[in-house]
Amino acid sequence: MAHILVVDDERSICELLEITFRKEGHRVEVAKNSEAARRCLQSNIFDIIISDIRMPDGSGVDLLTYAKEVAPATVFLLITGVPTVETAIAAVNAGADRYVIKDHELVDQLRRAVRQVDETLRLKNEAGYLRRELRRLTGLDNIIGHSPKVRVIFDLILTIAPQSSRVLITGESGTGKELVARAIHENSTRSKEPFITVDCGAFPETLLESELFGYMKGAFTGANENRQGLFQAANGGTLLLDEIGNMSPAMQVKLYRVLQEGKVRPLGSTEEADVDVRVIAATNRDLEKAIAAGEFREDLFYRLAVIPIHVPPLRERREDIPLMVRAFLDRFRKSMGKLVDGVDPAAMAKLESYDWPGNVRELENTMERCVALETGSLISVDVLPEKIRCGLHPGTQAMGELPANSTNGHAKIPEGGFDLEQYMQGTERAYILAALEASGGVGTQAAELLRMSYRSFRHYAKKYNII
User: What is the pTM of this model?
Assistant: First the structure.
């Protein structure tokens, strides 16, 4: 059965349509004006919208335009009591699926339209699939948002993609820097060639050198055969150097030489090989501060940052959160086979007000958890993580949950007890974040501050969606 939204300022029309379609087994919600309808669209997924053209706070055509932007698969039926040629043309141009006149046949016409909606949705889903495939192939479908900052990034991607200029993508962990890099590649003339990613912070210096440039048999202990490096593997395509800010000074020198000359020399070889690779670098560090601190080469920075792109954190584009929530909800409800098709307004308010230190990656993981736990038709506040329910920020705890130490050195249990595991996880996450901030985002230095190996540090950072 369809999920229907009726939008009309006439109470009698709303009641009539609600009763009619509920009797036929459909789920029906009602909005008395355009603003209420927009709020419904931000937190729910509808199969059909039935909307009047004339409303006190806006037109149905404007609502249609908005709906097609945030929910392009939804069937939109416009109804009017004052039909004119102009409104009909406007409805068709805006993409209305039906244009129905309010007369004695209104209910019958809408019934027929709703009965045909399964076939209509099938056709629209096929068209939507093709559109999604096209956007997936261009890499833009994975970048979700319609805020001004995201639109600027979309425009920049399409402008610079056909060129071979190097790009430096900056932004906090979890903001989607790799998605931007992939979109640049997919829209370039190199799109049919390899797109290869390497995390520069995941390898010790010697291993990173062999990973990037390759090696010859016998170059070092364990080198039992020749191995091609990633620069050669990506020849003709794009190489993303992720977390470039974690590259050692010695490797920075070697990378600069490759970028300058367009040649690589595998370890143990006396010969150089030409490579034609578009290099895109990404980092969550402020490289200009790293340059001032003598931790990053200025000449390499200018080689990499021919075109800089900054991906803003989610807290700076909160208007994108409802759209992302809808997209993740739709993905996970389908993959899990759950009948969850919306978000309770109170839960959406919590999601929009949270700061999302883990950015889009954290929001995605949160929505997966919520869909898995929800037993009703709407994501409720109850299934949100406690830090979001309580509006907590990294390193804070709910009132009464943080155990205090007594003066004799023994821990005190708060009245009513507390969740020790959650407290320990919150503490671990807070110190991981604090160490990263103190080290300017350099993972190896942050690990040293916490007296742990870099491998352990990355384990905890990934566990808490920090990287």
Answer: 0.61
